[in-house]
Amino acid sequence: MKKRNERTEKRWIVKSDSTPETEAAVLAISSALSVSKTLARLLVCRGYRTPDAARAFIRMESELLCDPFLLADIEPAIARIRRALEREERIVIYGDYDVDGVTAVSTLYLYLSSHGGNVGYYIPNRAGEGYGVSAAAIDRLHAEGASLIVTVDTGITAAEEVAYAKTIGVDVVVTDHHECRSALPAAVAVVNPHRPDCPYPFKELAGVGVVFKLICALEERLTGDSRRECVARLCRKYADLVAIGTIADVMPIKGENRLIVSYGLGIMEKSRRLGVSALISAAQGQADGAKSRYRTEPKITSGYIGYTLAPRLNAAGRLRSAEVAVELFLATDPARAREIAEELCEANRERQIEENRITTAAFEKIEAEHDFENDPVIVLSDDTWHHGVIGIVSSRVTERYGLPSILVSFEGCEGEHKGEDVGKGSGRSVKGLNLVDALLASEDTLLKYGGHELAAGLSVSRQMLPAFRKKINDYARTHLSEEALIPTLEADLSISLGELDMDLASELRSCLEPYGAENPLPVFALFSVTLEEIVPVSGGKHTRFVLSDGINHLTAMYFSHETASLDLYPGEVVDLLFSLDINEWGGKRSVQLTVKDVRHAERQREEDRLADARFREILAGGDFEAGENVVPNRDDFAAVYTVIRRMVRSGTDTVCARSMHSQLYAAGHPIGKIKLKLIFSIFQEMNILGIEEVSPDSYLFRLKFSTTKTDLEKSNILHQLRQREKRR
Length: 728
Fold this sequence. Notes:
Number of strands: 21
Oligomer: single chain
Largest sheet: 5 strands, parallel
Number of helices: 23
CATH architecture of the largest domain: Alpha-Beta Complex
Strand content: 15-25%
Shape: elongated
Number of domains: 5
């Protein structure tokens, strides 16, 4: 059994190509639209190959809001809701506990309330109840007077629960966007663009997007206004919530999603919902620190939603109750909104601590237990992992190992292990393996499951977990290719350091936002640049690079990568994959590169290979030119010994030659790699230091203390080197 995944280096793919046809398209777009050739090249790479196509994309002229009445079952859905409004029936919105579910609940609640509805909402507790609709919750809602339940972002797999609701006199309207099973719930209506019989042309709506289409249709029926008037009115009221949910659920930002998200982001830039404003303020205070002089107002982008707001909103459902996040969106009292926002930020801090704890434990389990040789799906379980955090950890596992992963938590199953203990699981997949299809093939080992192609949830009993692990791996072995298991990163195009300026960063932001799935933040490849500086940030958790091509200099941030683990040193030549950002701090704006991956440049690797081969050739007696500067002098010996002694005394006794070369360079005594290795050989020959090559290019040093001074002039290696140097 292999104990660890040996596929450490990722494959890079640069998608753009340079042909006479593409270059002609780039020039045409750049000229017609008055944009940079870099942006034009990016647009061509993404399939917009004519000025008209590029213009339509930038201006969103081709994006249309589809007719909501094309959704299957939309008529019976709005008819039943309308009847409930007219009869003042108790309507309960039953949602999921993620951001998509929370925004869907909030949107429908606000809309129905604005029309006088007797409306409430219910979101199951992730830890106590788990995902989806349950009979126990239906009983509770029925006892409280509900006669109509409208599910949002959930319900498509709740066939048994919907049937049960009908037997006790509760009607159910299902609205969802998750993949359907062969048999739909027998509800009053099932509104889901993924229904096989649904003619709706845009299938990639989020759960909150389906709710938005539902209320657009309902608004037409209730008011009699034109579709354009209804859509415009509802966008002004709810597009911010639709944008937040769509971005957080990583839905494709194309088609009508792109249009609604763009409008929603614009709303948040101008006039924010009270709860959203409070959360932004709390997040800024957390990021800046209470005593910071600078409180820069953030630019509201899809990235800001996805990386700053969404984790805080999700933290409520992960560690506490998602209904807290709904309360934030519904808040009308500023003091209460601030209180909830601070609570969400605190929950997010707790989530980060718990996530790091579980991640460390998961990596240890994987290295100790997983059979990389035979099992393409990592399946882990534990009794102490928090249900609400395992999904994030699963993402980190899949990112690190390039394999699908499923983490199962039996948290709450106290006492002696029992076969009937129920574990809640969360999984993430890679391109090439549809996780829902894999779970479908394993459903006889599961209690419940549902989700998307790349992310899903499940419930499984302890006694069936081994059978599930075997079955899903059997499925993956026949459906997942070897190529799909190679971690792959894609870049849109390669670029030079000199092209990366504020004009380009601003142009990308103004023309391509909003970013998201299928319209991602552009990723560029930068080849053969020098690392001038490598600086630890936040105690070494992050790393800052200063890059140079000999003329231009730029800063790049490598977040969540510890400096000590990178095996990179100042002066080395590297390739990078990165996105281009605008860093706004202290009232100043600057260009910043955010690194996705970094590796030694092929030029650097070739130089290292040649230097190593040349060292061995010279040590074996080969000739060399005086200009190669390989013969060390007394100052060289002293400089190297001083650095080694300082490292060993500080507790670092193993170091690679590249690191030593870098430290000498920084100390103002640059020594070539061939000369450095020759010095090591002479120290070893003269027994000045204990030196052992523990791996290629890596050495273990031991200081030796002597009362007598060693005469380096007695070194046979040094003598031979000087003799050969004289002959040249």
